[in-house]
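Would you mind writing out the residues of a protein together with its fold in token form for me to study?
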Amino acid sequence: MSTSDNNLVAKVKPLSNSNYTEWCGEMKAWLMRNGLWRLVSGKEPKPSEAKEVEKWEIKSEKAAGEIYLLVESDQRVHFRGHEEDPIKMWSLLEAAHLSKKPGARFNAYDDLFSIRKQDDESLVDLGTRIEKAMQAIQNLRPADFKIETLDEELQCMALIRALPEDYRHLTMPLLLLDKLDKRVAEPGQGRREWIQGEEAIQWRE
């Protein structure tokens, strides 16, 4: 690795439990610069021809090493057992840091609309904070996210935010659901009871 490469990789702050969005962008750029991103993103599948397999595996090992070294030790637990598979490592880290459930988006929207200009903050810096908050929201949207889904979620989120603190024991479990729509959030939709499942809390009529 050249001196310039060493200087560049030194600028990529290792992944911690609080900097995934920033790390993801910088790590992607680093992998792209080294010709490894197409493999990690799945756009360059493993070839079927034997003579090309070894070249692909060498690139795969290099990509895995790059990711491993730029992740803090306590974050490596997320891809334990897959240290030689950069595609799996990347997807596992994404899954660990980006819970794409409505509740996560609710909190992200709440963060966005809670932003206020600080006394010593420039408008440029304020705009940057807003842009990062919006990027965090976009990162929490699943691939099949539609404008209709956004409309449903915003309506439910408005209802949840409007409820007083006395309803907190009901609203908090709602944010753990895989889907949040009017049928779930509106009161008076028939008798419902909570069931604590292995992955989330769900409604049962």
